[in-house]
UniProtKB/TrEMBL annotation:
<feature type="transmembrane region" description="Helical">
    <location>
        <begin position="327"/>
        <end position="346"/>
    </location>
</feature>
<dbReference type="GO" id="GO:0004143">
    <property type="term" value="F:ATP-dependent diacylglycerol kinase activity"/>
</dbReference>
<keyword id="KW-1133">Transmembrane helix</keyword>
<feature type="transmembrane region" description="Helical">
    <location>
        <begin position="412"/>
        <end position="431"/>
    </location>
</feature>
<protein>
    <submittedName>
        <fullName>Dolichol kinase</fullName>
    </submittedName>
</protein>
<feature type="transmembrane region" description="Helical">
    <location>
        <begin position="262"/>
        <end position="292"/>
    </location>
</feature>
<feature type="transmembrane region" description="Helical">
    <location>
        <begin position="119"/>
        <end position="138"/>
    </location>
</feature>
<feature type="transmembrane region" description="Helical">
    <location>
        <begin position="381"/>
        <end position="400"/>
    </location>
</feature>
<feature type="transmembrane region" description="Helical">
    <location>
        <begin position="224"/>
        <end position="250"/>
    </location>
</feature>
<keyword id="KW-0472">Membrane</keyword>
<dbReference type="InterPro" id="IPR037997">
    <property type="entry name" value="Dgk1-like"/>
</dbReference>
<feature type="transmembrane region" description="Helical">
    <location>
        <begin position="159"/>
        <end position="178"/>
    </location>
</feature>
<feature type="transmembrane region" description="Helical">
    <location>
        <begin position="353"/>
        <end position="375"/>
    </location>
</feature>
<keyword id="KW-0808">Transferase</keyword>
<keyword id="KW-0812">Transmembrane</keyword>
<feature type="transmembrane region" description="Helical">
    <location>
        <begin position="46"/>
        <end position="77"/>
    </location>
</feature>
<feature type="transmembrane region" description="Helical">
    <location>
        <begin position="98"/>
        <end position="113"/>
    </location>
</feature>
Length: 432
């Protein structure tokens, strides 16, 4: 495809997006639409158009450029004067602390770049977040009676049921049309996708369902598209047992039901993305977080902040490793180990003696784990030295400024713990 045609498609795509937003705002004011209806109409339009991107562009670059333009546009629509009286009113008339539009654009980019040229891996997750999420939101707004708490707001079981039912229909239709999977697999997989997606949507907050649902479903579909029905049933059983088990012990850990379910989702996400080698250190970080809760956290939703940080860091590492270079699993594990160490140091209250012991123990555990790294993971002879530098940096900062980590604990620890590993990973790529 010529450069001129790509540029014309890019310009047309941006003009179409602006036109849809303007048309929805006009229709909403003209016919008195509920703000949620206007917002979800734009959501559906964006999702359906995004599903056509692999058919319009034959290379990755134009799609990446288009998504960057879309992100800039979404940021502009959030400006106070635009969101209250301009085009942004069609999206942001519903008052909520949400970055759902931003998360959706990022999710589209992630599943597009990770779809490996297989349209089903891209289109099905987007179709579900586009259609099923819209059905859940509108059903919950109009008919929701049985509600449950999520962070600062509520969702309804009626909305969850609507999400599940629409997802079954969408998944079954697309699997039949776009894959060669056996009919029995299609039926079982459609129900498994719908159930998993509904649970992820139910535990998401601040619009993060627009990010988590497509990405989690892509991992799930990639892993189990041609799995035997019994294997799918076993996964479903394991997931159900995990949800129940965590719910049972949630009270003893002083965890909310919402946070406990989110922890289960996070564990399955790490297992799906990195396998056992990629999940063991994040699970250790989760245990460290539960221990660190003995020291009060000033943030209003410390558990959810931790889950969001852990998953966000993991997705960034996965994206970087799969897109620009060799697998970054060993460097990602070092970042997770740094987070775990920082949380344990916070739990001790910044005691120097305990800090020294913990730093040595975590460092030794990480070096031992390196011997189990899969062959596709990027290695460096300097990785033990990088690990020492990274863990010592975490230790020094936490011991020197323990109280700084009482607020926004997870994001601050995540930034500190991943700084050295990320720089070292990029440097290792440059030396190859």
């Amino acid at each position: 495809m010529s450069i001129a045609l790509n540029l014309a498609l890019l310009a047309g795509s941006v003009a179409l997006l602006m036109g849809v937003i303007a048309a929805v705002r006009y229709a909403g004011e003209r016919f008195g639409w509920h703000a949620e209806v206007s917002r979800k109409t734009i959501h559906v339009a964006i999702g359906l158009y995004a599903m056509a991107l692999p058919l319009l562009f034959d290379t990755r670059l134009p799609v990446v450029v288009l998504l960057l333009i879309a992100l800039a546009l979404m940021g502009w629509l959030r400006l106070p004067q635009v969101r209250t009286s301009g085009l942004g009113k069609a999206i942001h008339a519903v008052e909520r602390r949400s970055l759902g539009d931003i998360w959706l654009a990022l999710a589209i980019g992630f599943v597009f770049l990770q779809s490996e040229g297989e349209y089903i891996f891209y289109a099905l997750p987007l179709a579900i977040i586009t259609l099923s999420d819209t059905a859940a939101a509108l059903t919950g707004s109009a008919y929701g009676r049985s509600r449950f708490a999520v962070e600062d707001g509520v969702k309804s079981w009626e909305g969850v049921v609507a999400f599940f039912m629409v997802s079954v229909i969408v998944a079954m239709a697309m699997l039949l049309l776009l894959t060669d999977a056996p009919r029995l697999n299609v039926v079982v997989l459609a129900f498994a996708i719908a159930a998993f997606g509904a649970i992820v949507e139910a535990v998401s907050w601040r619009g993060l369902d627009n990010l988590f649902v497509p990405i989690c479903l892509q991992f799930f579909i990639k892993g189990y598209l041609f799995a035997e029905p019994m294997a799918l049933a076993l996964i479903a059983l394991q997931f159900g047992v995990a949800v129940i088990a965590v719910a049972v012990i949630a009270r003893r850990l002083a965890l909310s039901v919402h946070a406990s379910r989110a922890f289960v989702i996070a564990i399955f996400l790490f297992l799906g993305a990195g396998g056992p080698y990629g999940a063991v250190v994040p699970m250790f970080a989760i245990a460290a977080h539960l221990i660190a809760r003995r020291r009060p956290c000033a943030s209003p939703h410390c558990d959810l902040d931790f889950i969001a940080t852990l998953c966000g860091a993991g997705l960034i590492w996965f994206f970087v490793g799969e897109t620009i270079g060799p697998s970054a699993l060993s460097f990602y594990n070092l970042g997770m180990a740094g987070m775990a160490l920082g949380l344990l140091l916070v739990a001790t209250g910044g005691r120097i003696a305990a800090g020294a012991v913990l730093t040595i123990a975590v460092g030794a555990g990480y070096i031992a784990l390196l011997s189990l790294a899969p062959g596709h993971a990027l290695h460096s002879p300097y990785l033990p030295l990088v690990a020492a530098a990274s863990l010592l940096l975490v230790t020094a900062l936490v011991l020197a400024r323990t109280t700084w980590f009482d607020r926004w604990r997870a994001p601050r620890l995540g930034a500190v713990a991943n700084l050295v590993p990320f720089a070292a990973y990029l440097a290792t790529l440059g030396m190859q």
